[in-house]
């Protein structure tokens, strides 16, 4: 039995508003966090990569368990609520951090909250609309999400001269709390229980891993992500290019603006011409952003870099999520999204650690070369995947 579809996208819109206020809260903090870690807390760039990579890995690992759990209990919303609540409550504690280890603990709590909510939320989005509109639904959600990510750095930019790091961190609780209220009262459960016999957690995972096309795509996405450096390194690069510390949050706002503007159009294009084709385009745009990381020589280039990187993020995050349900049954989507997130998270851990290490050890040429090689291999793999599936009539 198929879930009831929400023809006017109202569930997706409300989830988008939840993400809007959550990202407003988060990006107030994360636009300043690289400077907070490497400045007042004295962390090296390798430690910055460690904090970002391990925290993201924790969050992505939790997504696996959360996704499987949502399939087993046949409910999405309770886990989504727990995850958003934990993230909202944790970020103000950055104000109390006395060293990088304290900041790492808070960052990890926030990422665990994101991990708990993400797989069941993505499954809920895919269950709220007809299959032919899934990419558009994710594009709409990502655009609303990133609208908050645009405003967040601007709020931080306005507040920071008056309240400093601590004041911005404390204020992040306000929009985070609004997000939780919207989720409680306006988001509806859409999961329809399956008539199939429930499997064990391991059985769920084995069932999803039997989908060979999905597994092939996950391998390709993992290969790409193993070289896909975090936005923090774009902000650090902007600082190296001469952008003042007080203006770095505006570079971050440019990233998020590009991300927001491209999300929904990318989803519409993916629904029309094919999700895998549009995903290939996003990987090519990342490759271009990596070349810009290497060749940029002025503060003006930092803003161009931010635009290109934001376009890559906006397309990739929309289409990668949208392609997953194409290759798995509806009642197994929580598990599939959990596996997807575990693969991406493991790869991001490697990406941030290696990129940060190479940046400290040998500078930008070595770090950029690493990302250029991994993304080129992934693009070739994705083109090959499309060729094989077409030749087999799928």
UniProtKB/TrEMBL annotation:
Signal peptide: none
InterPro entries, A to Z: MFS, MFS_dom, MFS_trans_sf
Residue intervals of the Major facilitator superfamily (MFS) profile domain: 11-392
Alphabetically ordered keywords of this record: Membrane, Transmembrane, Transmembrane helix
MF terms (GO), sorted A to Z: transmembrane transporter activity
Pfam family, one: MFS_1
Regions that span the bilayer: 143-162, 168-187, 214-236, 248-266, 301-319, 339-359, 365-385
Descriptive protein name: Major facilitator superfamily MFS-1
Organism: Nitrososphaera gargensis (strain Ga9.2)
